[in-house]
Design brief:
The complex is a heterodimer of chains A (186) and B (290).
Chain A: H1 2-20, E1 24-27, H2 43-65, H3 77-93, E2 96-111, E3 118-132, E4 135-152, E5 157-164, E6 175-178, E7 184-185
Parallel strand pairs in A: 1-2
Antiparallel strand pairs in A: 2-3, 3-4, 4-5, 4-6, 6-7
Chain B: H1 2-15, E1 32-34, E2 39-41, E3 48-54, E4 59-65, E5 70-72, E6 81-89, E7 93-100, E8 107-113, E9 116-118, E10 125-132, E11 144-151, E12 154-162, E13 167-172, E14 179-187, E15 190-199, E16 208-213, E17 216-221, E18 237-244, E19 247-254, E20 261-264, E21 271-276, E22 279-285
Parallel strand pairs in B: 1-7, 9-15
Antiparallel strand pairs in B: 2-5, 3-4, 3-6, 6-7, 8-10, 10-13, 11-12, 11-14, 14-15, 16-17, 17-20, 18-19, 18-21, 21-22
The chains are: A alpha+beta (186), B mainly beta (290).
Chain lengths: 186, 290
């Protein structure tokens, strides 16, 4: 029975992982409150969104494998430091985290006049699954409006601030937990 | 299709009430806590358990005596964000916790550009201020940010803007007079200063005189100023050109103490001109005497 339950838990993990491959992405037209306009060809906008979505992949991999080195190309400053600290702590505690982003709704809201920073919002839905080895300790589906500040690096835009707006989570979040004896409940 | 079936199966199994933990719901989480503030999570039941608070900003683990409130001291959880809270071991529960920034500014990241520019440029200076709390969380509710640009020899420029999604910005003119300007961003007692070097612009006009000096001609400009009356910096290059019968002789001379001066051979009947950058000065036809 326990073996069967472990298999089911494994299947859930597989399911979350497979669903992770296909996050839907919606791009809203920029709504800038700064004086600096994006180029009309949309080159900057495309680059920023591409690099931001890549940063999610990098974050997913880093937090799942507890490898901070995976953050380097896409994160800088405070965002990178915080994620690196999380990875260090997770490794010490013997846990790792699987983030599965289901959807992103993106909009650029600020381009600083000197061109050194871009701010965007991401109305994102993702699953966060806390794991210990192969066991799931708990899963939550989170719907939040994240705010990201990106600054230009040598070859790409890098996420420097990554923070949800207060009170932006929805109330209908799903929950699943792993109960005593390896059982999983929802 | 097969994957979809597996997902559905997993969903049905997880939804089955028979798998619900007898002690699920052992946590009573606050909806949100302020970054760095002390808080308590009441627990129910009995026995030992382990609690994890996990998010992209921070991770905490605590041993729990079920039935006893779990105390978190000030400064334990300080990074703003959404956290998953998992209770495991003697009881199981999971929930979410939101950590919000402290609404009082403690730090400003101030991007000012450029660090050096000519005087008299409209909208030539820009400043962007990101406002953070003591834990370097971006404060997202509006905060008034004032920007001051002061240069000892020019009137102060001052403006205030409310931050929007954590950021406030401004554009200002460079002063009419050269000098070091202090560019200050302030928010509720926190201030950050950047120094902007305001330098003279291009020469406004160039006027030279010529007089014999032995076998050569001494050429010297009047004091060179920009259009705001600032002396153009030493080292700025002035070019003197003598043209005679289609042949040109040139001398590039740095400004020294407001003027440029050179002695060069000039054939009688030659036309001498002077220029610096895009500014051309007067012309003199040299007849062998002033």
């Amino acid at each position: 029975m326990i073996g069967r339950l472990a298999a089911i838990a494994g299947t859930l993990t597989l399911c979350l992982a497979c669903c992770a491959q296909e996050a839907s992405v919606r791009e809203e037209p920029p709504n800038l409150h700064g004086s600096h306009q994006l180029d009309p060809e949309g080159v900057t906008e495309k680059s920023v969104i591409r690099d931001y979505l890549e940063s999610w992949k990098s974050m997913r991999q880093a937090l799942d494998s507890n490898q901070a080195s995976q953050l380097s190309p896409y994160f800088a400053g405070t965002a990178k430091d915080r994620l690196a600290d999380v990875i260090t702590q997770q490794a010490k505690m013997g846990i790792h985290t699987q983030y599965v982003d289901r959807s992103h709704d993106l909009q650029i809201i600020f381009y600083s006049p000197e061109g050194l920073s871009i701010e965007m919002t991401d109305d994102v839905v993702y699953d966060e699954q806390v794991m210990q080895g192969g066991n799931t300790l708990g899963t939550q589906t989170i719907h939040a409006r994240y705010l990201a500040v990106l600054t230009p690096g040598d070859v790409r835009w890098m996420v420097r601030i990554f923070q949800p707006e207060a009170g932006s989570a929805n109330a209908g979040d799903e929950t699943s937990i792993k109960g005593p004896g390896g059982r999983t409940a929802r | 299709m097969r994957i979809h079936r597996i997902c559905v199966l997993a969903g049905i199994v997880l939804g089955a009430p028979g798998f619900a933990s007898a002690q699920a719901g052992a946590l009573n989480l606050p909806a949100s806590v302020r970054a760095g503030a002390a808080f308590t999570i009441p627990t129910s039941g009995s026995g030992k358990a382990t609690l994890y608070i996990v998010g992209p900003g921070q991770v905490l683990r605590r041993d729990v005596d079920l039935g006893t409130p779990l105390e978190f001291a000030a400064g334990d959880l300080y990074n703003a964000g959404r956290y998953v809270v998992v209770l495991t071991g003697g009881a199981s529960d999971v929930g979410q916790l939101e950590v919000t920034p402290v609404p009082k500014p403690s730090n400003i990241a101030f991007l000012a550009k450029p660090s050096r520019l000519p005087v008299g440029l409209r909208g030539g200076i820009s400043g962007t201020a990101y406002v953070f709390d003591a834990y370097h969380n971006l404060i997202l509710n509006p905060i008034p940010v004032s920007f001051d640009l002061t240069n000892q020899s020019s009137p102060e420029q001052k403006t205030t803007a409310d931050s929007h999604n954590g950021v406030a910005w401004t554009e200002m003119n460079s002063a009419e007079r050269q000098g070091k300007a202090k560019f200050i961003a302030r928010a509720e007692g926190v201030e950050v200063t950047r120094i902007i070097q305001e330098v003279p612009g291009d020469p406004c006009s160039l006027t030279m005189t010529a007089k014999p000096s032995g076998k050569e001609v001494e050429l010297q400009t009047q004091p060179i100023r920009d259009c705001s009356g600032n002396p153009v910096p030493d080292g700025t290059i002035v070019t003197f050109t003598a043209t005679y019968n289609g042949t040109q002789t040139t001398a590039d001379v740095p400004i020294k103490q407001d003027t440029a001066r050179v002695e060069m051979p000039v054939h009688p009947g030659a036309v001498i001109s002077v220029a610096s950058g895009v500014v051309a000065g007067n012309e003199i036809r040299w007849e062998g005497r002033p």
